[in-house]
Specification:
11 strands, mainly beta, Secreted protein, 4 helices, disordered N terminus, seven-stranded mixed sheet, signal
Length: about 240
């Protein structure tokens, strides 16, 4: 009969070999480990300090692995460039010389550069996820004795049930957006700026006066209106 077959059979204990093993004994208390030990390491540790002198062997049995549970998520390396979030404001508008109208409006727009300021800054980051799972198991303790190692010894007092250990792993998570309240500023942004409100928009009649916008001198609006010429497609809406 093989040793594995003997393990499944009823143990034969010779009283003269070790009388202590014949005495009633309680099972070893279960181990609840959170340090990352493996089931095999825990089963071995339960025999200390007698091993390796005792010649007993151990193995985890009835192993049940729980599901992975996320315990922590951390952002790591940034992905791509930061960007503005929220409704921007514009300052330091510098009007260019390209005057035009928006659709059929008599008002005048111009291409310009400006400082665009967003109230928040966004950035994508890689993430690392920490997960844990609990593994439950029993510890089987045995050894063979006798002239031909034909006798199996399984002391009840060395067996244990209800052991558990916590296994941990770190895996890559989905990219995550992080938004801060830091201003995001773009210098020299190209914009379409309203520079002149027509007299009719102000007085609803004639004659009237031009109104300058975005720092444009109202006195220059008549010339800008002439330079703007006819209408342009309405899709060219102003930025500011």
């Amino acid at each position: 009969m093989s040793k594995r077959a003997i393990l499944a059979a009823t143990a034969i204990v010779v009283g003269s070999f070790n009388p202590v093993l014949m005495a009633p004994a309680l099972a070893t208390p279960p181990t609840i480990d959170t340090t990352g030990m493996t089931p095999q390491e825990i089963c071995d540790a339960q025999l200390q300090p007698n091993n390796p002198n005792s010649d007993f062997q151990t193995e985890p049995l009835n192993v049940v692995e729980g599901g992975w549970v996320t315990t922590d998520t951390q952002t790591t390396d940034p992905i791509g460039d930061p960007y503005g979030v929220g409704t921007p404001t514009f300052s330091n508008v510098i009007i260019g010389g390209s005057y035009f109208r928006n659709g059929g409006s008599p008002n005048v727009w111009a291409l310009a550069t400006a400082t665009e300021t967003f109230p928040q800054t966004g950035q994508m980051f890689e993430t690392e996820i920490t997960q844990q799972r609990t593994i439950g198991f029993d510890c089987h303790v045995w050894k063979f004795v006798g002239p031909n190692d034909q006798n199996l010894v399984e002391p009840p007092g060395l067996q244990s049930t209800g052991n558990s250990t916590v296994e941990e792993q770190t895996i890559a998570g989905d990219p995550q957006e992080v938004i801060t309240d830091d201003d995001f500023i773009i210098e020299g942004q190209t914009v379409r700026a309203l520079i002149c409100i027509s007299p009719n928009n102000v007085t609803k009649g004639k004659p009237g006066t031009w109104t300058g916008k975005n720092g444009f001198n109202a006195a220059n609006c008549p010339a800008a209106s002439l330079a703007a010429g006819g209408t342009v497609p309405s899709g060219n809406a102003p930025t500011i």
